[in-house]
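Record 1 of the preview.
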Amino acid sequence: MHRTAIFLATACVIASSSAIAQTSQGTLQAQAGPGEFVVYFDLGQTRLDSEDLTVIASAAEEFRRTGATRVVVRGHTDTSGSADLNRTLSERRARSVAEELALQGVPADAITTDAAGETALAVETGDEVVEANNRRVEIAIEEPAPAPAPAPAPVAEPTPAPAPPVVAAAPEEREPDVDRGIFTLGAYYGFNMRDEGDDDGDDDGRSHLAGLNLSFDYLLTDWLSVGAEQAAFYNFGTDDDGFGGRTAAGVNFTLGNLAVIPYVGANIGYIYGSGIEDDYFAGPEIGIALGPVNAKLAYDMPFDRSWDEGIVSATVGLGIRF
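->
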């Protein structure tokens, strides 16, 4: 009986300690100090999850409760990736939090954003280190300074004129979003599995296409992009060698962050020229954008052929981001 009572008491103490520890941890994540809130992000991401929205709602409520006049939103990253890309990523994180604060009722002209990139780490690390505590946005609610006590009026002297009201500083202008589009000029190669005049489907109808390709791709969201491209090539290995062209447009789902953007999707277009049966085509494509380098591989299936008689199209080139 005595041992049973001791065991039950010990279990209660452990359970209470665990609950207190969990509560303290959650509080630290939501509010780092009076008027200070922190939102954390996944690697390479700017999206807000349900916990982030709860923290931002608490910050908006603190702004209204204290009568504050300014909110400073500062974005941060860890040290993985280049310094320039991390500064851009921290800027986008700060902007996403500022937009949610405005939706929660904080006036847009009271919000100031700042991008610290990897320069102000919460946890000191070396370069190229993935650290979750450094991928954050800090929200600081600046409470108004208390009004000074009025000075006593001197005897037999007029009351001094009241001080002019303090005018809040104008918020900093936010820079427009950057690095969402890329123009690419590079090489084009195509392998045509059935050339013009190959009615029997034997290997005699295969040919090669080689030339230049100009493409434009634009990232609509963090996960969806659209693009268009134009290739000019020379078709050889046929009975009717000559010049031709390929015009295509595509929609792709992106799978990475700002530094490395792999994507997969589909395109549709028109191919034409000497030695080729001019026709519309459609098919899948995959690719990757690594900094200024943009590479893509597509399988074009002309409408008048079977699926295994298409054209393998590959492009690689250097681009200019904007």
